[in-house]
Design brief:
This protein is of the alpha/beta class. It is built from 6 helices and 9 strands. The protein has a 7-stranded mixed β-sheet with strand order 3-2-1-4-5-6-7, with helices on both faces. The chain has a two-stranded antiparallel ribbon with strand order 8-9. The protein is globular. The chain binds 5-O-phosphono-beta-D-ribofuranosylamine (GRF). 5-O-phosphono-beta-D-ribofuranosylamine binds next to α1, β5 and α6.
Length: 200
């Protein structure tokens, strides 16, 4: 399966997917990286790996639909089958989401459905949680609400701060995303009637 990754910044999840896809038996190949910011550090990493990388800055467009059209054109030009959002900090319109329903994944730094939105590590500490983690899910119109594909949990340690949590969560995000993309690209996880259906 041909996979495009959308980023806004450093792209460490993108890098993990690029590395995993180098394995000959990995069921996906990364065919493009698109950033909504020209200075996204991940663009250079993609290029260094010989992957077409496009900066399509949202601020260059008068409206969200126009920006999303430009992104769609790049996705179709690379014959994309699956879109992976990885630190892509834009709200995607319902039209764009439905065009890619069941074929667009996102990673969120919490154990959804808990702690949607931003500042999840602060939310976890505020709630006094003793576990935390990350979730990869199919993207649906609601933010951070799509059917779950993979999750990894970590413990919250005494003295943890938002930064120490973010660092430990990030380190398990990478393997969580690699597993989720493999399941979807191989057809072992599909989105059906708003749910994830697993089959062997
Ligand atoms: C990660 O924490 C991810 O959960 C969230 O934004 C961050 C992206 O990091 N969506 P990176 O750009 O993949 O390093």
């Amino acid at each position: 399966k041909r996979v495009a990754i959308l980023i806004s910044g450093r792209g460490s999840n993108m890098s993990a997917l690029i590395e995993a896809a180098k394995a000959p038996d990995y069921p996906a190949e990364i065919v493009a990286v698109i950033a909504n910011k020209a200075d996204a550090a991940g663009l250079d990493v993609a290029r260094a790996n010989g992957i077409p990388a496009f900066a399509i800055p949202h601020r260059d467009f008068a409206s969200k639909p126009e920006h999303e059209n430009a992104v769609s054109q790049a996705l179709h030009a690379e014959k994309t089958d699956i879109v992976c959002l990885a630190g892509y900090m834009r709200i995607i319109s319902p039209e764009f989401v439905s065009a890619w329903e069941g074929k667009m994944l996102n990673i969120h730094p919490s154990l959804l459905p808990l702690f949607k939105g931003l500042h999840t590590h602060e939310q976890v500490l505020e709630a006094g949680m003793r576990v935390h983690g990350c979730t990869v899910h199919f993207v649906t119109a609601g933010m951070d609400e799509g059917p779950i594909i993979t999750q990894t949990a970590i413990s919250v340690n005494i003295g943890d701060t938002p930064d120490t949590l973010a660092e430990r969560v990030l380190s398990v995000e990478h393997e969580t995303y690699v597993r989720a993309l493999a399941l979807v690209a191989s057809g072992k996880a599909v989105m059906k009637n708003g749910r994830t259906v697993f089959r062997d």
